[in-house]
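testing teh design pipeline on a random one, pls ignore if ur not involved
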């Protein structure tokens, strides 16, 4: 049935849910060493704090986070990687591999993530894609899928470089998205964490003649309870960089730092990391936002079902001069009630309700009759449609004739 909806008058109701105000501690961006920093909720991806979070900067060896996750997803840990001349030529920090050497993929991933070896990253990139250019193209494609629109990978190891799209760069916000994917969403997240949490790894080449030992340079693993993962980086252009995560209780917090000092200030990143993680732990708590929205009377009414008149529709009582009604409702499931996000104690959720003032028959079941939007700090948190619980027909000549016959002829 083709339905006709006339000119709609839309009414909007905006409601702010207030919570009891408490003393709020603000993060002072000027107290951070990093020129760009982001604190992100690992569960939702919400940015809790940023300082120059969208500024494009070189990211040094934090690049290897993407190199590692792509190798895990596209390759096999038992793959044998043969070292090319170009891979063997990569500058320090390097494993010291020679052209023609062969290693198992898994061992090279420890080399990449624990010691940040540039030659290992190059060899893995060539193994996965054939050429480094093809691999960095794969890195860019993955970044775009993750919503990282201000990232350009030129090298797989993070050494400074430039191509037709600009220098090798990212933003603190994009880097946080990449780290979140690695530890929260990737099908290889457990392997990623296992590798990056390893303190020391000893391995040989495939002949067993050469032995190597790699120690994890991520000192933060021993600095804070719940330290989960992390990757350091440094080049002359990028300065000291870091991407890491902490999990305490039910909170997973991700921190990314770019341009966090230059020699001799390599410990600045640990200070910034501690400050941002502690800020997230102290100032944010999980709130179930649909459960809170149900404190609003209009939302409760819509959840129960709200009777709405439908112009030119067939009423149940068959009265020629009446219009029928439909039940407009908002479906908030048990799963919706459990949805949560990290919020400050003083933050509020804004509710916007848009309903059609005039509904024209016919109406189909589950037809959209409006929408409810939840906003947090002006950004859309979630949207749900207000829908019809049933269908109703339009008064036509046949229906009108039958009702006249019933009313006057019988």
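output:
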């Amino acid at each position: 049935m083709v339905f006709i909806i006339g000119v709609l008058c839309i009414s909007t109701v905006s409601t702010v849910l207030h919570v009891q105000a408490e003393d709020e501690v603000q993060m002072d961006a000027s107290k951070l060493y990093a020129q760009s920093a982001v604190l992100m909720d690992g569960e939702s991806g919400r940015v809790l704090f940023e300082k120059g979070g969208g500024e494009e900067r070189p990211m040094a060896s934090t690049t290897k986070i993407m190199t590692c996750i792509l190798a895990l997803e596209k390759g096999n840990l038992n793959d044998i990687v043969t070292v090319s001349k170009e891979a063997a030529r990569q500058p320090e920090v390097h494993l010291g591999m020679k052209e023609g050497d062969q290693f198992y993929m898994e061992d090279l991933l420890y080399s990449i993530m624990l010691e940040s070896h540039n030659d290992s990253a190059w060899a893995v990139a060539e193994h996965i894609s054939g050429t480094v250019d093809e691999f960095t193209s794969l890195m860019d494609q993955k970044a775009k899928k993750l919503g990282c629109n201000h990232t350009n990978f030129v090298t797989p190891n993070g050494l400074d470089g430039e191509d037709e799209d600009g220098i090798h760069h990212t933003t603190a916000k994009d880097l946080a998205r990449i780290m979140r994917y690695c530890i929260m969403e990737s099908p290889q997240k457990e392997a990623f964490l296992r590798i990056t949490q390893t303190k020391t790894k000893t391995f040989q080449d495939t002949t067993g003649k050469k032995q190597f030992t790699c120690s994890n340079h991520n000192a933060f693993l021993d600095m804070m309870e719940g330290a989960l993962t992390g990757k350091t980086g440094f080049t002359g252009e990028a300065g000291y960089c870091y991407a890491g995560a902490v999990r305490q209780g039910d909170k997973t917090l991700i921190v990314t730092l770019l341009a966090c000092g230059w020699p001799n200030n390599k410990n600045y990143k640990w200070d910034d990391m501690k400050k941002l993680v502690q800020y997230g732990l102290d100032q944010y708590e999980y709130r179930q936002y649909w459960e809170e929205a149900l404190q609003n009377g209009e939302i409760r009414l819509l959840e129960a079902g709200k009777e709405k008149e439908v112009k030119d529709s067939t009423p149940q009582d068959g009265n020629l001069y009446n219009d029928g009604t439909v039940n407009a409702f908002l479906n908030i499931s048990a799963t919706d009630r459990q949805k949560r996000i990290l919020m400050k104690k003083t933050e509020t959720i804004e509710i916007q309700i848009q309903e059609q003032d005039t509904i024209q028959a016919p109406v189909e079941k589950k037809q959209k009759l409006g929408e409810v939007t939840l906003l947090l700090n002006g950004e859309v948190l979630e949207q749900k449609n207000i829908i019809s619980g049933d269908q109703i027909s339009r008064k036509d000549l046949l229906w009108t004739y039958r009702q006249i016959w019933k009313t006057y002829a019988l």
